[in-house]
Structure prediction request, 696 residues.
Amino acid sequence: MVAGTTSAPVRLDGVLDEADWDHAGTIPDLVQQDPHPGESTPYKTEIRLLVDEGNLYLGISCRDPDPGRIAVHTMERDGNLRGDDTVTIVLETLGDRRRGYLFKVNAAGARLDGLISGPESFKTDWDGIWDTRVRRGADGWSAEIRIPAQTLRFTPGADSWGFNVERYVARERTTLRWAGTSLDARLIDLRRAGRLRGLRGLRQGKGLSASPYGLFRSNRDFEEASRAHKGDGGFDLTWNLSSGLAAVLTVNTDFAETEVDTRQVNLTRFPLFFPEKRGFFLEGSNLFSFGSGLHADFIPFFSRRIGLYDEQQVPIDLGVKLLGQAGRWGIAVLDTKTGDSDTTPGTNLFAGRVTYDANEHLTLGTMVTNGDPNGVDDNALLGFDLLWQTPTFRGDKNLSIGAWTALSRGDNPDGQRSGWGLKVDYPNDLWDVFLVLKELGEGLDPALGFIPRPGTRWLQGGGSYMPRPSGESWSWVRQFFFEFYLTAVGDLDGHTESWRVFTAPFNLRTQSGEHLEANVVPQFERLTEPFEIAPGVIIPPGDFTFTRYRAEAQSSRHRRWQAGATIWFGEFYNGRLEQYETYLRYASETGQLQLEVAAENAFGHLPAGEFIQRLWQLKAVYAFTPRLLLSSYTQYDSESRNLGLNTRLRWTMHPGNDLYVVWNHDWERPIGNPSDPTLRSLSDQVVLKLRWTFRR
Prediction:
């Protein structure tokens, strides 16, 4: 389709009443993609597009025969929109049909955005500068969206981009789409996108963006009876070196506004994985993705290693990034200088990733890291990977084959310092199957990466058979999911360390969105040394084969009240273990108020002793508007006996200009009587932070 042009700014109010909308490029309706591709629906959706010199505008009209049932649960930026009526836009701006942008808005005006790095790789952690307004009416809802050209990286003068748009009607679980309307097509698969033309007039200006910040921080330590007050400041400077490449400089980086980590219960003998949440490292993080079939088992570059050491913050004095595309080349470079801290001396840390699109199916890449966060040891990693993928296997099916290898050097443990892996993946609607092989040397030790089990060989495989019943007797079921997944891990001498078989003989989602599942999970663990699973409860070395059982039920995400429960029970090493995970969520009709309470309780009964692990969480969000939100997140876990409160007020005065007020407080339950509810304060922190963005 061809976008229309406008010379007058579009006033964002959710009402498509400007005269230029009558001359916009128009998609008169969308086609049903799920659950019945191509069939008609009563949900007429009209999409209009305009461009001026500096912006892309979208006008969206979503007609609904029963607007009182439109579902919204949040107004929060990057909130959970999976149960909401939404419209999603994807843009592929550099012509590689692999990487792009996603913008989503719900019927309450909440925004979500992210970066696409492949047909199965999408991260919502990027926060672009764009704006939207939504209006509810008697016949449905409408939205106006403005995406500044400076928010995107694209080739000036190019007349067309990859483009697709999707509408989701939550109560019916119905998806409508412009292009890629088969059940096997995913919205983020940009190879299946259509083409949007008429974009030659878009300009990025001088490509300069400055984001200074200032903050005031007040800390109180109750144990040391001390107070400290501090003012600080810094800035980020972005310069678009070319149409696809941007350089970013950060000085005196601060992450005071970042939400605290979600706590986890750990009943394994391996470290837990916590995702990156800091904005500077999230932007462009998709370009650092390396290796097919790698998840938390091995991450060659893990940005949380920068600025954090032994769970203590380390100051980041200076950081430089180079991100983007240059023809068929993808480039991601990060270099940081950390300052001295109580635990580590300052040091330089580097990570670089380069990819090359050899043709429409094959991408080759390399990864380099250098430096050790401890500021003392020497460490470096070099890796190579390739990925071949197609959406036309056997006509219109998805298939990908990937391989990687990596080598580390420096002050590493003894042993093999290399690793390799292979993955074959067939991710489609009826059958979703895969096979992964990988080997991780005992000396493969990336100081800027994450590898919890070095010195192992892995076999992972299996998949899901997911039929959609058509008979009357099963008309209440939308889709079945019969699953079988095997994970087997051994040492480099061929001895089995562990294996696990996850099966789902019963797993379904109903037409209304409820989820019911039952699992049988036999597994094996070999302990070569004692494992202290809880204080004073030690499992001795030996071979353990046991079977776990799981039952799960969840209500539909579109409902105002949502509830779910998961129960694990059965054998556990040489004893028994019961785990209960529950949640209850509520959202007001307008999406202004959200409440969620969640609990995880584990009760272990072992010959070495009994233990209880608890994790309780409470989230509350109140949105005065989609641009002024107050959120509070409270967590308590029995292992640390710590109760933590993280409260944030975020006011987006204008996209890119934000005021944060953050209050953190920690309490601790003293060791002693478990029934004693006494709490004593440990620390208190208040932060006021203002960030402003200037663009030219």
In short: Helices lie at 279-282. The longest helix spans residues 279-282.
